[in-house]
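Researcher: Sequence recovery benchmark, item below. Answer with residues only.
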């Protein structure tokens, strides 16, 4: 058999058997990671953090998004796709905690060692960012409506109409409140990549 037709004996270039190469995934994920971490911190209260660590959520989102990246619809905003995954990860963690009293994050999946290392690297860098930690601590003290507005509009990037429905406001009210909140947050010094600027 000619050499060019022989199967390549080397393992695929990725995290392991059946794991695709990183490609441009980390370049897209990296700028959104601080927003996902902030989102997780705002959703997971202090008592719940004993069981569900926001850093674990960030790592799990990375792994799941990486595995599903080949199926990502490039017509959709990447940030919105990631937050959809984050919602699912958190929902599953809460269900697991309620049902079994334990977190659903079981560590590295077989064959994903390289991916897990990359996820850990990114999440560790995000968690060590002092400016981000100060910002998260400050916004945790926002009133309920402002915190939800930040989560829905600023972090998840939902449109004003969707936010208005979730907060039971008019669309114009949601837009005006977002403009005021965004202005206040910018004066405090929002870390890069946190707020969706739409």
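Model:
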């Amino acid at each position: 058999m000619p050499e060019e037709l022989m199967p390549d004996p080397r393992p695929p270039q990725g995290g392991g058997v059946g794991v695709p190469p990183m490609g441009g995934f980390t370049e897209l994920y990296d700028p959104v990671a601080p927003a996902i971490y902030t989102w997780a911190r705002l959703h997971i209260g202090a008592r719940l953090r004993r069981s569900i660590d926001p850093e674990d959520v960030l790592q799990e989102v990375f792994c799941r998004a990486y595995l599903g990246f080949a199926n990502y619809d490039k017509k959709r905003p990447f940030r919105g796709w990631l937050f959809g995954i984050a919602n699912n990860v958190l929902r599953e963690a809460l269900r697991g905690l309620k049902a079994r009293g334990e977190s659903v994050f079981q560590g590295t999946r077989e064959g994903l060692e390289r991916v897990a290392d990359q996820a850990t690297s990114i999440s560790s860098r995000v968690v060590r960012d002092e400016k981000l930690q100060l910002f998260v601590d400050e916004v945790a003290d926002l009133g309920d409506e402002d915190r939800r507005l930040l989560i829905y509009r600023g972090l998840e990037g939902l449109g004003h109409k969707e936010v208005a429905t979730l907060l039971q406001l008019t669309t114009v009210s949601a837009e005006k409140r977002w403009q005021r909140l965004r202005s206040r947050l910018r004066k405090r010094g929002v870390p890069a990549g946190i707020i969706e600027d739409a």
